[in-house]
Amino acid sequence: MANYTQTTKTISLEPYGIKNAQVNYQLSPEELQEVTIENGQGVETANGTLAVNTGEFTGRSPKDRFIVKDAITEDKVWWGNINIPFDSDQFQKLYDKVVDYLSGKEIFVRDAYACADPNYKLNIRVINEYPWSNMFAYNMFIRPDETELEDFSPEWTVVNAPGFMANPEVDGTRQHNFAILDFTRKIALIGGTGYTGEIKKGIFSALNFILPVFKNTLPMHCSANVGKDGDTAIFFGLSGTGKTTLSTDPNRSLIGDDEHGWTNENTVFNFEGGCYAKVINLSQENEPEIFQAIKKGAILENVILDSNGEVDYEDTSITQNTRVSYPIYHIDNIKKPSIGENPKNIFFLTADAFGVLPPISKLTPAQAAYHFISGYTAKVAGTEAGVVEPQPSFSACFGAPFMPLHPTKYAEMLSKKMKEAGVNVWLVNTGWTGGPYGVGTRMKLKYTRAMINAVLNGDLGLYNYDDYHIHSVFGVAQPRHCPGVPSEVLSPRTTWNNDKAYYTTAFKLSNAFRENFKKFESFASEEIRRGGPQRYSF
Questions:
Q1: Percent helix, strand, coil in the chain (nearest 5)?
Q2: Choice among 175-179, 291-295, 419-423 with the minimum mean pLDDT
Q3: Which of 221, 260, 344, 471 is an active site residue?
């Protein structure tokens, strides 16, 4: 391997139990890309972007995510099939095995931090087995300058060993891969998976505990941007609903695309220093900012290249979850620093594959809390084994896999902030229109953008009967008119052209909402409970 330039200082990994390692500290992305290619772990596309294959895992593995149950977490974490407890002694034994595995190897180490607001800054040291994983950490965390590195003291450590395979019978894991958070040791331990999303979501999950418990700040799985007048817009949504696409707007400055905190001072700050976007069916025409951000310094995951090194974004033969990570400065129009003030509009994004939710509707505070706790989107046929028709998918707070506390804790914080800030909340269906998946069509991106722009420009009128229709099943207020959108598109029932089929499907989804919410009813107020669909079908 070539000799690479060390930045500022060299460090020892002996304090972590990693012995006799060749430590590459704070290498540049260019150097990390070079060694990745030298090692045969990646290739360059036609325009110089690094393309890697993450191996067996092309997405997160939620059933293999654990939290160490100890004095800090025992009485606060919402334990269950999302936050799975792990024994502290068992963690130490597994950690010892992982650092022993990493000993004697060439290791890549990066110091970085999370949280753009200096009052909430979290210093992180990332220890990677693979160079491209370390390049991902460069892209996704916030990059300290030389002076910050001189006396850098990490608070949390990520130990990432994709090549280490756990023995479930001995190590207490479910299978050979694992992602474990230990809040006492302040370690995120990841092994057996090369999927880089586990690195960023590990720190995100840690912050989703730290910020509300110790800093009285709401963590959010959302994107955010800010207009020329300083108004911040927040976009909640699960993967594939349009968080990154819709927040990346040439007329508004991007704060961030996935993880944010909302402080008591009514500011919103990005946790990250980069973006991690889905690239399935990506095109220059529909998503020009993201398309242009894919250049040298970005990392494409699990895409297919042709013989000329061009990427086929429609090819999902490896996975539907093809991705790119890039530093946020690859986007031209960004907010510096990544902090916004004065949130005015919140959008809940859902890809409704049943095609029954309005493409945009305004929510009351109670409805907003209900839909936030529900976190609805839908799985479509083909995305998972055995899914042959649309299936409702609920993920509390639009990010249940990353939320260690009970969902109502986050919902109560959000409701309080919404009322104090006078925020308008909108439910946006980026999914199907004119029928369910397989019958209808996906909502045109230009229509969704027009609706969001109309909200941000104040063009949707006041909340009254002349301008809005109250949906007879979901109770939400759908606008009757919107600039740039045909009026019939605003009414999902009209697009179906079959009232009986529409209402049968609408009630099917409303019943799914009600069934899902039963597990939260005992924790939610009467006001929030009444924010959901109030009618069962017969």
A1: 30, 25, 45
A2: 419-423
A3: 221
Q: Is 200 helix (H, G, I), strand (E, B) or coil?
A: helix
The 3-state DSSP class for residue 160 equals strand
pLDDT tens for 174-209 read: 999 999 999 999 999 999 999 999 999 999 999 999
In 3-state terms, what secondary structure has residue 393?
strand
Catalytic residue among 45, 133, 244, 263: 244
The answer to whether 201 is a known catalytic residue is: yes
125, amino acid identity: R
Catalytic status, residue 239: yes
Name every residue whose Cβ is closer than 8 Å to that of residue 298 and which is 6 or more positions away in sequence: 49, 50, 139, 324, 325, 326, 330
Residues contacting 533, CB < 8 A, separation 6+: 473, 474, 475, 510, 511, 513, 514
The span from the CA of 64 to the CA of 171, in Å, is 12
Catalytic member of 117, 257, 258, 352: 258
The pLDDT value recorded for residue 4 is 53
C-beta separation of 461 from 480 below 8 A = no
Confirm whether 243 is a catalytic residue: yes
CB neighbours (10 Å) of residue 337? 13
Question: Using the 8-state DSSP alphabet, how is residue 336 labeled?
Answer: S
Q: Tell the residue number behind the tokens 């669909």, with chain if given.
A: 533
What is the C-alpha to C-alpha distance for residues 369 and 161, in angstroms, rounded to an integer? 39
The helix/strand/coil state of 85 is strand
| Residue 316: closest CA among 287, 280, 276 | 280
Q: Which of 110, 125, 200, 243 is catalytic?
A: 243
Whole-number Å distance between alpha carbons of 463 and 455: 12
Whole-angstrom Cα distance, residue 447 to residue 486? 9
60 among known catalytic residues: yes
For the question of residue 89 being annotated catalytic, the response is no
Pairing of strands 323-327, 299-301: antiparallel
Tell me the two tokens of residue 222.
Answer: 């959302």
Q: Which of 323, 344, 406, 471 is catalytic?
A: 323
Please report, in angstroms and rounded to a whole number, the separation of the first and last CA atoms in the chain: 70
Task: For 105-123, write each residue's pLDDT tens digit.
Answer: 999 999 999 999 999 999 9
Rg (C-alpha) for the chain, rounded Å, is 23
Tokens matching residue 184: 């006492």
Contact in structure between 94 and 127 (CB atoms under 8 Å): no
**Using CA atoms, how far apart are residues 267 and 298, in angstroms rounded to an integer?**
29
Determine the Cα–Cα distance for residues 510 and 52; give it in Å rounded to an integer: 42
Burial (Cβ within 10 Å: 0-12, 13-18, ≥19) of residue 532 = buried
| Catalytic option among 69, 110, 143, 201 | 201
